[in-house]
Write a structure and sequence with these properties.
This protein is α/β, with parallel strands linked by helices. Helices cover 48% and strands 12% of the residues. The protein has three domains: 132 residues, no CATH class; 99 residues, 3-Layer(aba) Sandwich (Rossmann fold), CATH 3.40.50.20; 194 residues, no CATH class. The strands form four sheets. It has a five-stranded parallel beta sheet, with helices on both faces. It has a two-stranded antiparallel sheet with strand order 6-7. It has a two-stranded antiparallel sheet with strand order 8-9.
Length: 469
Amino acid sequence: MQRTGIVSVERRDFTLRRLLATADVLAIAVSISLATSLFGYAGSSLGRTAWGLLTLPAWILLFKTYGLYDRDAKRVSHSTVEELPWLFHAIIVGGLGLWLFYKVMPPEKLSLREGIAFCAAVLPGLLATRAVARAVAHRIVEPERVLFLGGGPMAKLLIQKIRLHPEYRLRPIGYVDAVDTPADGLEGELPYLGHLSDLESICESAGVNRVVVLAPAVDHAALADLIRLTKGLEVRISILPHVVDVLGSSVEIDDVEGITVLGINPPALTRSSRFLKRAMDVSIALAALVALLPALIIIAVAIKLDSPGPVIYRQDRIGHRGRRFRISKFRTMVQDAEARVGDLKSLSAHPAWLLLDHDPRVTRVGRFLRHTSLDELPQLWNVVRGDMSLVGPRPMTPDVDEQISGWGRRRLDLTPGITGLWQVLGRTNIPFEEMVKLDYLYVTNWSLWQDIRLLISTLPAVFRQRGAN
C-alpha cells in the first residue's frame, strides 16, 4: 500500500487532537503572558502570569466542551475559519472564568485593560496556531483511502472535485455497487471492485478508511446494515443525499418526535438581513478605499506607463433582478481588446465565455494585476454605489447571462459580489455549469456568517492564485 505520510489514518484523529490542544495551549499561554506583562501592575507580572498559566487545563476542558477537538473527525473539510463562532464564544466564557479566577485567588484581580489585551491577542493567536496545527497534520498524516458505494454522474463529479482539491486529504481507490455490473459514467475514473455484498472483505483488503454512499444506491434498511458492518472495521461513512443539489451549508437538521427533518432557508432575505448585508458592504468598502488609496494611485500610474488607453475599464454586467450596471476594473488588456474577441473565440476553452490559458491581449502590468486580483479593487466603488456587494454571485455579462435559465435565474435574487463561492473555490478551474450551481447555493443558503467566512477565505485563495486567468 502506498504511503505518503508518517502517521497512519487510524491515528489521524489522535494526532490532530493533540496538535490542536498544543496549539491552543501555546496561544492562550502567550496571550496571558502578553496581557499581564505589558498591561499589568509593575513588578508582579511574572507571578501573575504563572497564576494565569494554571488555568490552561480548564481552557482545554472548555474547548473540548465546545467540540473544538472532535469536529474534524465528523467532517471531510477541516477549516479553521469555520470554527470562528465557537472559538469566539468559548473565549468570552473562558475570559469571564479567567477574571473570576484572578478575583478569588491571591494575585491582584485582572484589570480591564489586561482583559481587553488578552481577548484581542488570543483570538487571532488561536486561529493562527490552529491553522499551523492542521497544516502540520496534513503533511504527516496519510490521505484517507475512499471507497464509493454507487456510481452515476454525481459520483464522477465528486471524484473530480476531490482530485482538484488535495487539501481534503482524500484518495479515491475504487467503487462497489448493489448491482453486478459496473456503474455507468465511472469508466476510466475508478476501478470497479465488486458487489455490495463483498463490502467487508473489500474494505479489509483495500485498506479503506472512508465509504461514500451515493443515495439511492442503497435503501434505508441496507444503509443501516452498512453502518453496523463498518463500525467494526473502523471505517467512516459519508452519505451524499439524493437532494444534494438543493442543499447547502445553512441546512438545519431538525426532528419531529425522532423523525429527521431538514430545514432549508426561506426563499427571500428578510429586511433586517438585507440591511445588515448592506451595512457591512458600505462600511468595509469605504474603509478599504481609504486605506488602499496610495496603492490605487500607484497601480493607475503603472497602467498608464505600460500601455496606451484609459486606467479604468468599464463593462455592462447583469445585477440584482436583471438590472444592468457598469462594472469598474483596472484595465488589464490592450485598448482594442473588445474588437479582437471574435478572432479568439475559436481558441476558447469554453463556449459560454472567452477562456484562454494565455490571452495575447493582456498587458504586462495587467498580467500581474490579474494574478493578484488587484484589477478588481475599483469594484469597491461599485459596492458603495449599491451595484455590487462584497460577497455574492458572479456578475455576468449580458450575453453569458442569457445562457442561464430555470433555477439558475435565482442567482439574480441577490446583488452580485466581488468575491463568492466561485472565486474562493477555484475560479476558472470550475466549469460554467458548476459556477451557476454555486451561485444558486449561495443565494438559497445565505447567512451573514457565510459572507464573513468567504471574505476571510478570499485572501488565501488570492494568495494561492488557484484558477487565476
